């Protein structure tokens, strides 16, 4: 079994509603704009999911365990492990979520007590670019592992040996089935990947975000789920054809009446 020293996600945000496991992935992944309070919607485009980030805004990655067992989530931002700072690989450390747990990861892990905030920023100012790794800027991804369960020994009947003729018959059928399997689909257009990326994730201010250490035995070497979200600013997504070119919100004239003229609570005047 593969045992890793991993982090137990600290704040329990909420419990998910029970639903059939086949209807959803092991872990739901969403991105929340912490400055506007909005959940960033995902736009499907050419087999990928895209979100629009606002430069200068802080964000959090919300992880929700939809299963009745613990899972390990290795979080990658711009191709960098959000816990260790290494170039991301599924075998690395991550966060452990309890059954049905939902939590928000607010930044790059700096210690057991704090993180450096995730913030949308110009690509040259992104953490990945500043550390010489700009190739995967614009991707948020997770690799999810199930926990190994205790093994119990069972005495199974001895297998029946097949004769050579029977082996040839069934083995040949299997080989034929393999050879007749359809070839992998042709690679999709790389227009999106070749388009210039505008924003990345910066290394923001420190904030308190405590976690604890725990052990976790992975059920397999390969993750049970890999999910990724592409992101860029709205104008760039519009240029790629991911979203409409018109603004996300109605453009009201100043002299027109509006049902909700104000947004959120403003800061008080300075002394």
Compact summary:
The chain is mainly beta and 271 residues long. It contains four helices and 16 strands.
Describe the structure.
12% of the residues lie in helices and 35% in strands. The protein has 271 residues and is mainly beta. Strands 1, 4, 5, 7, 8, 9, 13, 15 and 16 form a 9-stranded mixed sheet that branches. A hairpin with a 2-residue loop joins β4 (43-45) and β5. It starts with a strand and ends in a 31-residue tail after the last helix.
- What Rg do the Cα atoms give? 23 Å
Number of contiguous helices: 4
Uncertain segments:
1-5, 11-21, 162-191
Order of helices and strands: EEEEEEEEEEEEHEHHEEEH
Q: Helices and strands: which structural class?
A: mainly beta
Write the layout of secondary structure elements.
Elements: E1 2-8, E2 14-15, E3 27-33, E4 43-45, E5 48-53, E6 58-65, E7 71-77, E8 80-81, E9 95-97, E10 101-105, E11 107-109, E12 114-122, H1 127-130, E13 139-146, H2 164-180, H3 191-194, E14 199-208, E15 212-218, E16 225-233, H4 234-240
Parallel strand pairs: 1-9, 5-16
Antiparallel strand pairs: 1-15, 2-10, 3-6, 4-5, 6-10, 6-12, 7-8, 7-9, 7-13, 11-12, 12-14, 13-16
Biased composition (Basic and acidic residues): 167-177, 248-258
Keywords: Signal
Biased composition (Low complexity): 178-196
């Amino acid at each position: 079994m593969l045992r890793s020293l991993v982090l137990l996600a600290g704040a329990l945000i909420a419990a998910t509603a029970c639903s059939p496991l086949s209807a959803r992935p092991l872990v739901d992944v969403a991105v929340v704009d912490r400055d506007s309070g909005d959940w960033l919607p995902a736009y499907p485009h050419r087999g990928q999911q895209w979100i629009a980030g606002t430069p200068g805004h802080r964000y959090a990655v919300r992880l929700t365990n939809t299963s009745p067992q613990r899972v390990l989530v290795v979080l990658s931002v711009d191709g960098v492990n959000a816990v260790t700072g290494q170039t991301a690989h599924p075998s690395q450390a991550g966060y452990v979520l309890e059954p049905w747990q939902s939590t928000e990861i607010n930044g790059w892990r700096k210690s057991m007590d704090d993180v450096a905030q995730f913030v949308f920023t110009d690509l040259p100012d992104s953490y990945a670019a500043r550390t010489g790794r700009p190739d995967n800027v614009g991707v948020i991804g997770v690799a999810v592992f199930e926990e190994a369960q205790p093994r119990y020994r069972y005495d199974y009947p001895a297998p029946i040996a097949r004769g050579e003729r029977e082996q040839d018959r069934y083995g040949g059928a299997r080989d034929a089935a393999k050879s007749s399997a359809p070839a992998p689909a042709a690679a999709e257009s790389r227009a999106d990947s070749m388009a210039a990326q505008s924003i990345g994730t910066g290394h923001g201010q420190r904030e308190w975000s405590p976690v604890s250490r725990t052990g976790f035995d992975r059920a397999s070497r390969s993750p049970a789920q890999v999910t990724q979200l592409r992101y860029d600013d709205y104008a760039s997504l519009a240029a790629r054809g991911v979203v409409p070119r018109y603004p996300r919100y109605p453009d009201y004239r100043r002299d027109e009446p509006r049902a909700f003229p104000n947004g959120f609570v403003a800061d008080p005047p300075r002394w």
